[in-house]
Amino acid sequence: MDLSIVVPVYNEEENLPHLYQAIMKAMETVRGQWEVILVDDGSRDGSLGVLEKLAADDPQHIRVVSLRRNFGQTAAIAAGIDHSTGEIIVLMDADMQNDPADIPMLLEKLDEGYDVVSGWRIKRQDALITRTVPSRIANWLISQATGVRLHDYGCTLKAYRREVLTGFRLYGEMHRFIPVYASSVGARIIEVPVQHHPRKFGKAKYGLERTVKVILDLFTVKFLSSYANKPIYIFGGSGLALIFLSFIVLAALAVRRLFAEISPFTSPLFPVSIMIGILGAQSILMGLIAEMLMRTYHESQGKPTYTVRKTLNVDADVPARKRG
User: H or E stretch including 4?
Assistant: First the structure.
């Protein structure tokens, strides 16, 4: 299979027939074998029945994965990726706000040598206060924190090479952070404008509260992308900063004792500086423990600390044999 289109579905009964027709029309110009993985995320309307009919009518292209309950968009996307077989994976929503007609354009960008092609909804057709503005704020925060600068992390319409999707699991609202994970293994990323249409059927599943979840997940993503392999850098760095601060305060108290003859023990800064120093030492120890856990993780499972884009005249099994 050359291409897999993964679509999470939750209460989109009216949109699904239109989505199928739009995908079929868009794929008329795409060469190679392709499939559509439709993941029913515990829909409470008639979505599953529509999906079953589509799968029966077009067994060549339509695959359906039905989850036992509503696990959320990220889990549904993960299930779709796990059940897909294509070397290229395109993610998109089922609400017909993403336009399947943009898929050939995404594939053309992959052919130019990129590993990730991310959609950018320049003319977004959503509520300004509850969705567009919070999304822009979240996009700015994510770009600043991760260094992977995209205008629209929230746009589900993205194309990936399968090789950059391996090696990590998706939790929470982390599907929007996939470009960050891909960047951490050296993926070439480009952002392209895509169409965005107003929702015609059904209701939006997310509102303002989703921004809070995204910001909380950002802390996890920042740690995993920047410090997962060397946790001592963040724990040890914080510990050294705290110890240095404690030393400065104690030195100031000592100078005051020497020249002003004021006992350091009478100042509330003395116990505070001691506590800060203890926290710094504990932070360094936590970093060392995290280092041991990370080394155990890599060595026990034979996971390399690097990723290879390609090799020339090299036996692909050589590194595995040496680790064994």
Answer: strand 3-9
The angle, 0 to 180 degrees and rounded to 10, between the axes of the packed helices 133-146 and 209-227 is: 10
Residue 137 included in any domain: yes
Give 84: exposed, middle or buried? Use CB within 10 Å, 0-12, 13-18, 19+. Answer: buried
DSSP-assigned letter for residue 249: H
Q: What is the pLDDT of residues 134-143, one digit of tens each?
A: 778 888 888 8
Query: What are the helix (H) ranges across the chain?
Result: 16-26, 47-57, 73-82, 103-111, 133-146, 178-184, 209-227, 232-260, 269-300, 318-323
In a domain, 273, yes or no: yes
Q: Enter the DSSP assignment of 196.
A: B
283 and 212 assigned to the same domain: no
CA distance 132 to 124: 7
Backbone angles phi, psi at 271, to 5 degrees: -65, -30
Question: Domain for residue 320, yes or no?
Answer: no
Residue ranges making up the domain that contains 180: 3-227
Segments of the chain with pLDDT less than 70: 1, 130, 205-211, 297-324
Return d(Cα 159, Cα 182) in angstroms, integer. Answer: 12
Task: Report if residue 29 sits inside a domain.
Answer: yes
Q: How many domains does the chain have?
A: 2
- Residue 215 · residue 176 · CB < 8 Å: no
Q: What is the pTM of this model?
A: 0.74
Q: How far apart are CA 247 and CA 270, in angstroms?
A: 11
Name every residue whose Cβ is closer than 8 Å to that of residue 234 and which is 6 or more positions away in sequence: 223, 226, 227, 287
Q: Tell me: do 149 and 216 sit in the same domain.
A: yes
Residue closest to 41 by CA, chosen among 74, 63, 86: 74
